[in-house]
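Render this sequence as a predicted structure.
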Amino acid sequence: MFLDVTMRRNPALIEAAVKLHQRGDIPANCYVIDVDTVAANARLVAEGAAAHGLKTYQMTKQFGRNPIVAKAIAEAGIGGVVAVDFEEARVLYKSGLRMGHLGHLVQVPAREAQLAVEMAPEFITVFGVPQAEAISRAAVAAGTVQPVQIRVSREGDVYYPAQKGGVPIEDLLEAAAAVDALDGVRVAGVTSFPCLLWDETDQEFRPTPNLTTVTRAAELLRANGFTDVQAINAPSASCLATFEVLARNGATHVEPGSCLTGQTPLHAVSDQPELPAMIYVSEITHQTAEATYALGGGFYPRSKARNAVIYPKSGGEPVSATVELDPPDAIDYYGTLHVTGPGEVSVGDTVVYAFRSQVFVSRCFVAVIGGVATTPQVLGIFDRDGFVLGPDLLPPAQPSSGVSALDTRARVGAV
């Protein structure tokens, strides 16, 4: 999906990744991230959002919750992070990142409410009063007041599978009053997802009914005495090209993610200010009469991958290939390729892809590299969840402390 544009606009990333793989410095089944280009993208995004009066939180799940990359984005101007689930919050918080938004898309588990409040996020999203009650108890125990956003829904809104939930807008005033009556919390915003979606026919992002829902919800609350409602959080497809339409439609907060690696659907069909900064590297494992196969683990059912380039380990000319996408219910042990370009390929050759990713749900490695344009250097190899790996590609050995697994939560919170 993004291979052609990456070869044209960031060829140094591909060149560096191929050399590093063939030298044995990075493994197959590995996403490779150009952290300097990500940081440059983040600076542009932060400045563009600010010019439209929008507050930004960085979304990290697409690149595997990686702490090096997230810190580079923070230093570039997008300091707060949004954790789509509590596992992500743990990793990022332990890495020293500032929590901007928790609980959306995935609600904070009730038993994790205390730690969530201790992380001092700017907002925690709740899908209803029961979730707010858990946050209230935790905030009272911590002696603080936690701002919350209410996820709002309305008939006609759109959702991805397994992502439904929220307070129906006709019940919003009653729910908001119940939340505001709780000690330790206050209603400070509204949110939904997705607020923009890609229109394949017109090849552009368009507002969804959800965006109208959250702006109406904010107006309804403010008109009925909820004066602390400041945030209209409108995530999905946040990038330089969409900030104007989001701000014009009332959004105040956005959550750029895929644009930071230059990989929204818009970036696949037109040159945008954000440059491509992530590829997927694997290697040929075997061939049959029907196809050529690459080691899998990092493929994503909604990747829309179309092509790949094979770089012979012998140093010969690159060979083009088309991608045969497996059905979503298949385990991606291998990726299926059909060689289209001239040249011979063999087992061990490097394969480069660039497609829409969700690293956090893949079985893959992540290599962060710096100095792509000058002297490429591997800054670290990580698992999909953002934990650094040792030279053996396993987590570093931890000394036995006598602490049971039940104490893990307490240890993570004590950062």
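Summary. Residues 79-255 form a domain with the TIM Barrel fold (CATH 3.20.20.10). Residues 403-415 have pLDDT under 50 and may be disordered.
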